[in-house]
Amino acid sequence: MSAIHYPFNKLIVVTGAAGFIGSCLVSKLNKEGFNFIIAVDDFSKVEKAHNLEGKTIQERVERNAFFDWLDKNQEEVEFIFHIGARTDTTEFDRAIFEELNVSYSKEIWHRCVDYQIPLVYASSAATYGLGELGYVDDESQIPNLQPLNAYGDSKNEFDIWALQQEKKPFFWAGLKFFNVYGPNEYHKGRMASVIFHAYHQIKKTGKMKLFRSHNPDFKDGEQMRDFVYVKDLLDVCLFLMNHRKNSGIYNLGSGQARTFKDLVSDTFQSMQLGPIVDYVDTPEDIRDKYQYFTEASMDKLRSIGYDKPFHSLEQGIEDYVTNYLIPDAYY
């Protein structure tokens, strides 16, 4: 399979560029020689300021000014990564999600159609809800999914809308991100990964608190998630940018569910400490929405030629803790 080569002075747009995944993507693009990057975000959020330090960017464009900018500069744009979104699963104001995750994404889609710009956008495994239909990226099942919160609803709504469109970008892909962890997530508060919180809790107290299981099928700490290291996600994004065929919606996880107990033990080990874990009750307000198992089926992405192995949980945590959390470094 031959890669697509195009001028390195063409512009690549990254929305959400100051956020966790967006800033890591900008860094990855720089490492691959792409320096003509348009960073789109709400740059008034000063807590994310460190994420773009030291990165090569052609221009910063405020989120609310982006469509005017794109209308004027579309001929220079080679690719759009639409990573920006409101991702807070505890936000209940559906109007915010409708504006930022649905309407904004539709505007980007329409322009990618009109201007013939290929598009990769961020969806979410939150669309799968409790996994009643499994975790297979079968597009025919997407209208039947039942997300558990407004965030998941907004992502699923856009996926459904995209699939229904008669006019589509000549290449597009929606990526259902599972539990992503890695550097540059320090600003996310409660929404940061369990690994981030485990590291800081262990550093402060010497131990880690995990939720008890309230499901008889799972022991305490053996609730399972598909944790995917952000560096693997970046490799997939660049593969799709160069591949530019087989449009559609894809899972993006590690393909391997692991327990929270494993995660915490690996974090202690990376900090060269023995594990001490306390279990606390899952708060009642989220107990009925708590996922006990997620695991991405990765066959669809593999079927279009992506063959790079993913980090194991042990490998990802070791790299994250040793090279980023302990030295307080950015990617």
TrEMBL record:
**Is-annotated flag, keyword NADP?**
yes
**Residues annotated as binding NADP(+):** F20, I21, D41, D42, K48, R63, I83, G84, A85, R86, T87, K155, V180, K188
Biological processes per GO annotation: ADP-L-glycero-beta-D-manno-heptose biosynthetic process; carbohydrate metabolic process
Q: What class of enzyme is it?
A: isomerase
Q: In which pathway does it act?
A: Nucleotide-sugar biosynthesis; ADP-L-glycero-beta-D-manno-heptose biosynthesis; ADP-L-glycero-beta-D-manno-heptose from D-glycero-beta-D-manno-heptose 7-phosphate: step 4/4
Q: Which reaction does it catalyse?
A: ADP-D-glycero-beta-D-manno-heptose = ADP-L-glycero-beta-D-manno-heptose
Q: Which UniProt keywords apply?
A: Carbohydrate metabolism, Isomerase, NADP
UniProt cofactor note: Binds 1 NADP(+) per subunit.
Q: Which GO terms describe its molecular function?
A: ADP-glyceromanno-heptose 6-epimerase activity; NADP binding
List of residues binding substrate:
N179, R190, H197, F211, R212, S213, H214, R225, Y290
EC?
A: 5.1.3.20
Q: Has UniProt tagged this entry with the keyword Nucleotide-binding?
A: no
- Cofactor(s) for this protein? NADP(+)
**NAD-dependent epimerase/dehydratase domain location:** 12-253
Where does the record place the catalytic residues? Y151 (proton acceptor), K188 (proton acceptor)
Extract the InterPro entries matched here.
Answer: Epimerase_deHydtase (IPR001509), Heptose_epim (IPR011912), NAD(P)-bd_dom_sf (IPR036291)
Q: Gene3D superfamilies annotated for this entry? A: NAD(P)-binding Rossmann-like Domain, UDP-galactose 4-epimerase, domain 1
Q: How does it assemble?
A: Homopentamer.
The protein's job, in short, is:
Catalyzes the interconversion between ADP-D-glycero-beta-D-manno-heptose and ADP-L-glycero-beta-D-manno-heptose via an epimerization at carbon 6 of the heptose.
Q: Which PANTHER family does the UniProt record give?
A: ADP-L-GLYCERO-D-MANNO-HEPTOSE-6-EPIMERASE (PTHR43103:SF3), NUCLEOSIDE-DIPHOSPHATE-SUGAR EPIMERASE (PTHR43103)
The similarity comment for this entry is:
Belongs to the NAD(P)-dependent epimerase/dehydratase family. HldD subfamily.
Its domain description in UniProt is: Contains a large N-terminal NADP-binding domain, and a smaller C-terminal substrate-binding domain.
| HAMAP family the UniProt entry points to | Heptose_epimerase
What name does UniProt use for this protein? Answer: ADP-L-glycero-D-manno-heptose-6-epimerase
- Recorded name of the encoding gene: hldD
